[in-house]
Amino acid sequence: HVQLVESGGGSVQAGGSLRLSCAASGYTYSANRMAWFRQAPGKEREWVATIYTGGGSTYYADSVKGRFTISQDSARNTVYLQMNSPKPEDTAMYYCAAATIYGGSWRDRARYNYWGQGTQVTVS
């Protein structure tokens, strides 16, 4: 099993910056990709970004491309989401996810089998 704990959420002004962290524990070596998803009130959970733990390849939703950066610190078993120039529409609960299963789209939340509890981000 893999346990995920997010931190770093809070309130930020539009145009500012915020960094979210996701600390992984357990069988972390088994995760082949990590991702951030978000869910705003009344909306479905949507994919934000993915990083492949082996090669470091990254992928972003169009809505955050050029503003957000996903990265990893393998020594600390931590994945980050650097949020630059956030907008009010980025307000949501942000979830970290890990996939120990292979195949499928990195955008598909069904392909991630471990989830954190979430951290709230509010942009005003």
Mean pLDDT across every amino acid position: 94
Backbone structural class: mainly beta
The low-pLDDT segments are none
Q: Secondary-structure element sequence?
A: EEEEEEEEEEE
Helix content range of the residues, please? under 10%
Radius of gyration: 13 Å
Can you describe this structure?
The protein is an all-beta fold. The protein is built from no helices and 11 strands. It has strands spanning 2-7, 10-12, 17-26, 33-39, 46-52, 58-60, 68-73, 78-84, 92-99, 114-115, 119-123. β5 and β6 (58-60) form a beta hairpin. The radius of gyration is 13 Å and the shape is globular. The mean pLDDT is 94.
Summarize this structure briefly:
The protein is mainly β. It is built from no helices and eleven strands.
Helix and strand arrangement:
Layout: E1 2-7, E2 10-12, E3 17-26, E4 33-39, E5 46-52, E6 58-60, E7 68-73, E8 78-84, E9 92-99, E10 114-115, E11 119-123
Parallel strand pairs: 2-11
Antiparallel strand pairs: 1-3, 3-8, 4-5, 4-9, 5-6, 7-8, 9-10, 9-11
